[in-house]
Every structure is written in structure tokens, then in C-alpha cells.
Write a structure and sequence with these properties.
The structure holds two protein chains of two kinds. By secondary structure, chain A is an alpha+beta fold. Helix content of chain A is 34%, strand content 17%. Chain A has helices at 27-48, 54-62, 86-99, 122-131, 164-174, 247-261, 272-279, 281-295, 304-312, 333-342, 370-383, 406-415, 445-455, 459-465, 527-541, 548-555, 558-564; strands at 8-9, 17-18, 66-68, 73-77, 83-85, 103-106, 112-114, 148-149, 189-192, 206-212, 218-224, 236-243, 343-345, 351-356, 367-369, 387-390, 396-402, 430-431, 470-473, 487-494, 497-504, 516-517, 522-523. In chain A, strands 18, 19, 20, 21, 22 and 23 form a six-stranded mixed sheet that branches. A five-stranded antiparallel sheet of chain A has the order 3-4-7-6-15. A five-stranded antiparallel sheet of chain A has the order 5-16-17-14-13. In chain A, strand 6 (103-106) and strand 7 (112-114) form a beta hairpin. In chain B, strand 1 (4-7) and strand 2 (10-13) form a beta hairpin. Classes of the chains: A alpha+beta, B alpha/beta.
């Protein structure tokens, strides 16, 4: 029996058949997801019937992505390692339309959040998701969360190995893991396979880097203890090389030490990063290795046949034999700018990776409407083998676009407000939902994003500033990753008023670093002016072709701080 | 009223007692917190009745290894719904230390936990009265599993593909 996604027909009935490059459920996956829907339907029924207390239901719903938020429940749906088929994206759009208010919010961990579902509808939403091989399993709660990866996996030129098969192997291993469903705290794993880290892997509880051993044998470098939140820490190498068949037993050893020894008495000290920090990496490594040695030979192994079986799902699509061209040459300036900023080199000649910007100035960063999701799904079918990716920076990607088709694709995206030519620039900011939705937030991060967009609306200036990661969180839980923004903005509460603490010098990629606070927090209305002053120092002091982050690293925060606090910020 | 128990998929009357429940005859099945066991091990071993030990979440089950042959029961205590260390204790008792007798989960246990607990090797569960019927069904919540654990008859993905 073929699944509903096994063979897809190009939209418009032109008869081009292809299989999306992604994992497909077999009867075991399908059974498990359907049984999970039934289980959650019964749990929801018991809660609504008063058989489960708020607290009892909280433990259960959180393991299925359902939060109770400021205005309404929030449902977080897993997009495993950020990969979507067009069919799945249409379903996400249809859920936004049917059960929500016509939009969804894509997150830094490659998931999507719905902010307005009704609790009683959630089982039906999950059933809709299950029909297209999706779920909300372990998208929240103190368990192993949805594994994330490089949004450009499989299509960038410099990749050592496609990380997605390993993501899928980890997804399966971690799903309903009987031993690790009631951990001290949440647990996040990211996997990358290219030299450039586009998955913030050093800021994860475990970062898995595909690597080669001394004789070129396949395996991984394993990092542990990274994380953001109140105590941001960059992950450390626990093992520089792990042969590939041992991945799951090694992860299991780390998780077991953490499950037993991680703190459970204080929620703010319960992440693995605190355990690693308090023991020291040497001692933590010693314990993990001792545990691993005691069971690795009879623990979970991934035989070569299984690796190959999973890898076969990620066989590259049938690319046409094309030559590289310059589609932007001689075209209008708007297209040239978009092509320069919103597309990326592809490993196959004649193809291009295209970013769909979800950073239109007047829209909350990462939001897409149901109509936009439908359109992007159609464009994916027409231009990119029916596949869409979600990025860490909360944009979408069409991974396999023929260079010669980029102009018509741009026109279609432009009409739908999805071609804002700002990828990698100041206004391509990461932002949490903030006070507008989240019950934890101190600050309306979305509104600040709007103020920043109003101030920095001159594209020539933005392009001159070059690559700058602006990251904004509405509270110290750091969902907007402000610690690792070249410029970070954190909402703080001062006597019931929203204030903003500014950090500079953070980075989430290969050169990960934590930003430094420049000084006292500033009022909301002064945030744009503060940014302007930081950028003014950069423009004045930068070396040719030096990025903002590199200027900050070279000069330190002093000149920036002096300029910002030189005189009261303009009102 | 005698305490009921879900054991091996059936509701039974619990024959085990704890010291906190009052004095018991020498041949009564008695389960003790690890600290009490440790404090007077020789005395407990001299009893004629079945012996069991109750592990608190922070206890190391490895301490029981020399005595496992003499123990008819090991129980893990779950003081709260979010407590997760007992899952590891159960798995290691079964898979590493080969404990084959009754492995019991006590405390804040509901039907929603029994499936995962069973996969960690637990075969008996102390439950609130209202949970028994649901818990029997919940032992079959999923008909397959992705990862190997304590799988008595469950389809495990790797072996069935």
C-alpha cells in the first residue's frame, strides 16, 4: 500500500511525477502516530470531563505540544528537521484556516505554532496531521524534542554528508523513548553535516556533527551542554569521534546520566548544561563513557542496512543537466537585489537555493498566512520537487530551483509579500511571539520588530551594513536567541513597563559566541535609536568587508557603549 | 480495605506490606525502603517471608545487586508525575542486572504512565481505584515501538522492517 505522499503529481496537472526527497511512513510509523492521536483524544476527553486535574493534564498535553497561553492554547507541531512536502504544507495552511485565525508561526527549532486553537479541536487537528504523516509528539515537555538540522541539508556544495538520514534515525529512536520521557527538563538535539553550522548546534543539549575518523571512517563529533535561556552556555566536545553505528547507544548513555543526575529541585538549574558545568566536562565525559562502555555492545545499534534503508529516502531528486547562468544579469534592480540576498549557491550546476522571506516589515517575523502556505506549496510543486524547508532564522526555503526559473518564481513570491530582499540583513530578525501571545513574556517583541522595521527601511543602508543577525526575545527564556545575536534584544519588566536590554557580539553559527550586555536597558521607543548608534560606530570603524560581528570582536563593546550612552537617546 | 494492584495485566489483591503499615508476621511479604534495608540487612535476610526493597528516585539500584537473588520484589517510588529516575532504575534492573521477579511502580502513577513503565520492565503498578480499568487498556496503548527496551512481545521497528 503506498502512502498518500508516495507519488505526487505536479500541481496544474502537467503530469510530471516525482517522489519528494523525504522519509515516508511505513505501517509502523503510521500505526504509532494514529495510536498517539487516539491516546491524546482520550486524555483530552478525560480532562474536559473533569477526570484529570489541570496539573495532571498539563503533564500529558505538554508532551504533545499543547500549551495554555495568554489568550488561548498554543499548539506546536513538529516539522522533523525542518522538512516539509507540499502536501504537508497545504495541510498546515488548512489547519490555520479551519482551526486557527488564518496563520501560523514558524519557530527557530523548525516547528510551526498555532496560537488560537480550541482545546477540544486539538485531537481533530492531530488526526489531520497524522493523515499527512505529521504530529505534535514531544514538541514540548521535559522530553527529547523534535530534532533539528541544517535547512540547506543535501543541497549545499560543501557538505560532508547529508545529515537528514541521521535526523530521521534519531527521530525514531527518541519518539516515545520509554526511559527518557520524564527527564529533569527539555532536551534538544541538532545534527549538521556541513562546515558551516546553520542549525545553532552548539546551543543544543546535544550537537551531533557528522565527521570522519582517522582512517576516513564515517561517524560523528558529539557536543554536549549547550543552551540558551537564563544561563546561556556554548556546548563542549564530549567525544571528538564516534563511529556511526554507535550513535544511538552514545546518545542513550548521555541521556541516562542526565536523567539520573540532572537537577530536579530547581527548574532553572535542570538543563543538562548545568550538570555538565557543575561536574566539569572531564568528569561528565568520564561518567558517560563508563556508562556507554557497560552496554554499548548490547545497546541500540544502527546496522549498516538500516542506515542505507533510511538514506535511500533521501536520494537526490532527478536534476536536469544544466549549466550555471546569471539570471540576474540585465534584469530590474529589485530582482537583482532579491537574487543576491535571497538565493544561495546550489551543489548542482544550473540550480539555486531560494529563501522565502517571512520577514516582511509589517508582519510578525516567522508568520505565514494560510494563503501564503498554499501558494508556497504550489510553488514548491512547480519549481522545487514539491519540497519546502524551514530555517533556524524563521524563513522558508525552496531548495532546488532551476536558475532559469528564478525570475518567474520571484514574481510569484513578490506578489504574495514573500520576496522581501532581506535575508541575512538586519531586518531578517529572529523574534519570539512575545507578549502578544506568550504568557511568559515581559515584552511585545513583535511591536519592537515593527519599530525597527520602520526605522531601517532604506535597503541601500541595510545592504551597506551587510550581514547582521538581530535576535530578539520577549523574556529571559530566550526563545528569540538574543544571547547569540550579533545584536541581541531582551525584553525586561521594570515596574510594569517594557524595557529592553541590548547585547552585542553574539553568534549562533560555527563561530558561536555569547553577546555582552552594553549597559542599562533602554525604553521601547529608544530601541531603534540605540541600534542606529551601534551601527553608526560600526560604519565609522569597520575595515573594508568586515562584518558587524567581526568589528565588535576586534574593538570590544567599549566604543559602542560610549556612543549609545553618550547622551540621552532621542525621544 | 486490602490494597489492589495491577500485576501482569490483571487486578489482584496486594499481599505485600510495608513497615509503616504496622507489625507483620514473619512469613508475610514485606517491602522496605532501601535505607531501612541497608540499616538492618542481616535481620531482614533472616526472615522467612518474601522480601522486597523500595527505591527512592535518587537511590542507586546497583546497591541491590548482591541481594537480587533473595529479593522477590523491587519497587520504584514516583513521588510526583514528573519524576523520571525510576524509569532508568527499572530498565537497568531488568536489562543489566537480570532481575526477573516483581518490579513495581508506586506513587504518582496513572494509566498514562503504565505503557512506558512496562517498557522499562515494570510488571506491577499501585494505582488509584479509578485508574484500574483504564490502566489495563493502557498497557496496549501502542502496538509497536521504535527503540529496543524491555519488549515482551511488542513489535520493535528495527526487527520488523
Amino acid at each position: 500500500m503506498s502512502s498518500c505522499l508516495a507519488v505526487m503529481t505536479r500541481a496544474g496537472g502537467e503530469g510530471l511525477h516525482y517522489s519528494s526527497v523525504m522519509y515516508r511512513y511505513d505501517v509502523i510509523d503510521k500505526t504509532l502516530v494514529e495510536e498517539r492521536v487516539a491516546q491524546f483524544r482520550d486524555q483530552t476527553r478525560r480532562f474536559l470531563a473533569g477526570e484529570l486535574s489541570d496539573d495532571e493534564f498539563r503533564h500529558l498535553r505538554l508532551r504533545n505540544g499543547l500549551y495554555i497561553q495568554r489568550h488561548a492554547p498554543m499548539l506546536r507541531v513538529a516539522i522533523p528537521y525542518g522538512l516539509l512536502s507540499s502536501t504537508q504544507l497545504r495541510t498546515l495552511g488548512s489547519i490555520a484556516r479551519r482551526y486557527d485565525r488564518g496563520y501560523g508561526h514558524f519557530t527557530t527549532r523548525q516547528n510551526i505554532q498555532y496560537n488560537w486553537p480550541r482545546i477540544e479541536d486539538v485531537p481533530d487537528i492531530l488526526a489531520d496531521l497524522a493523515a499527512v504523516e505529521m504530529h505534535a509528539i514531544q514538541t514540548s515537555g521535559n522530553c527529547i524534542r523534535n530534532v533539528t538540522s541544517d535547512p540547506l541539508a543535501g543541497v549545499v556544495p560543501d557538505e560532508l554528508e547529508d545529515p537528514r538520514p541521521w535526523c530521521e534515525i534519531i527521530r525514531q529512536w527518541s519518539t516515545f523513548h520509554p526511559e527518557f520521557t520524564y527527564l529533569p527538563r527539555k532536551f534538544k538535539i541538532a545534527v549538521t553535516g556541513a562546515p558551516r553550522d546553520r542549525a545553532a548546534s552548539q546551543l543544543h543539549d546535544i550537537g551531533v556533527h557528522i565527521a570522519r575518523g582517522p582512517q576516513g571512517e564515517p561517524g560523528f563529533e558529539i557536543l554536549v551542554g549547550g543552551g540558551l535561556g537564563r544561563t546561556p552556555i556554548i556546548g563542549q566536545v564530549i567525544r571528538s569521534f564516534l563511529p556511526r553505528e554507535h550513535l544511538l547507544s552514545y546518545l542513550e548513555a548521555i541521556l541516562r546520566i542526565y536523567n539520573r543526575e540532572g537537577r530536579r529541585d530547581n527548574i532553572h538549574k535542570a538543563r543538562i548544561k548545568i550538570l555538565v558545568k557543575s561536574l566539569g566536562i572531564e568528569e561528565f565525559r568520564r561518567r558517560v563513557e563508563a556508562e556507554w562502555e557497560s552496554f554499548k555492545d548490547h545497546g541500540p545499534r544502527t546496522p549498516v542496512e538500516e542506515i542505507e534503508r533510511i538514506r535511500a529516502f533521501f536520494t537526490p531528486p532527478s536534476y536536469r543537466a544544466l549549466a550555471d547562468t546569471d539570471p540576474a544579469a540585465g534584469q530590474e534592480a529589485a530582482f537583482r537585489a532579491w537574487y543576491r540576498y535571497n538565493t544561495h549557491e546550489h551543489k548542482i550546476p544550473g540550480y539555486r537555493i531560494v529563501f522565502v522571506s517571512l520577514k516582511k516589515p509589517d508582519v510578525a517575523p516567522g508568520d505565514a498566512t494560510d494563503a501564503q502556505m498554499d501558494l508556497i506549496a504550489d510553488l514548491a510543486d512547480r519549481y522545487s520537487f514539491g519540497e519546502v524547508r524551514v530555517t533556524y532564522a524563521q524563513n522558508l526555503v525552496l531548495g532546488d530551483v532551476e536558475q532559469g526559473k528564478t525570475l518567474e518564481l520571484w514574481r510569484a513570491l513578490e506578489q504574495a509579500g514573500l520576496a522581501t530582499p532581506n535575508i541575512g540583513t538586519l531586518t531578517d530578525m529572529i523574534c519570539c511571539p512575545g507578549l502578544d501571545f506568550c504568557s511568559l513574556a515581559n515584552a511585545g517583541s513583535i511591536e519592537v520588530a515593527k519599530l525597527i522595521n520602520e526605522r531601517f527601511d532604506d535597503y541601500d543602508y541595510l545592504y551597506d551594513l551587510g550581514e547582521i543577525d538581530l535576535k530578539m526575545s520577549g523574556c529571559m527564556n530566550a526563545c528569540g536567541h538574543h544571547h547569540v545575536g550579533a545584536i541581541g534584544i531582551l525584553g525586561v519588566d521594570k515596574g510594569g513597563e517594557e524595557w529592553y536590554q541590548i547585547t552585542i557580539g553574539g553568534a549562533a553559527g560555527t563561530d558561536a559566541s555569547l553577546g555582552s550586555v552594553i549597559g542599562p536597558s533602554v525604553a521601547k521607543r529608544d530601541v531603534p535609536e540605540t541600534l542606529a548608534r551601534l551601527l553608526e560606530v560600526y560604519v565609522r570603524q569597520r575595515h573594508p568587508d568586515e562584518r558587524f560581528i567581526d568589528t565588535v570582536r576586534r574593538l570590544g563593546i567599549k566604543p559602542f557603549k560610549e556612543r549609545v550612552y553618550a547622551a540621552p537617546a532621542a525621544a | 480495605m486490602p490494597r489492589r494492584l495491577l500485576r501482569d495485566g490483571e487486578t489482584v489483591v496486594d499481599e505485600w506490606r510495608t513497615p509503616a503499615e504496622g507489625p507483620v508476621a514473619d512469613d508475610t511479604a514485606l517491602m522496605l525502603p532501601l535505607a531501612e534495608w541497608r540499616a538492618d540487612r542481616g535481620r531482614w535476610l533472616a526472615r522467612s517471608g518474601p522480601l522486597g526493597v523500595i527505591l527512592a528516585p535518587a537511590d542507586d539500584e546497583q546497591e541491590l545487586v548482591p541481594d537480587l537473588a533473595r529479593l522477590a520484589l523491587v519497587a520504584a517510588e514516583f513521588p510526583t508525575l514528573s519524576e523520571g529516575r525510576g524509569y532508568t532504575q527499572g530498565r537497568l534492573l531488568r536489562e543489566r542486572w537480570g532481575f526477573a521477579r516483581e518490579l513495581r511502580a508506586r506513587g504518582a502513577i496513572r494509566r498514562d504512565q503504565v505503557f512506558l513503565l512496562a517498557r522499562c520492565g515494570f510488571n506491577s503498578f499501585e494505582l488509584p481505584e479509578a485508574e484500574f480499568e483504564g490502566a489495563v487498556a493502557a498497557l496496549h496503548t501502542f502496538s509497536a515501538a521504535y527503540q529496543p527496551a524491555n519488549d515482551l512481545g511488542l513489535r520493535t521497528a528495527l526487527r520488523h522492517r
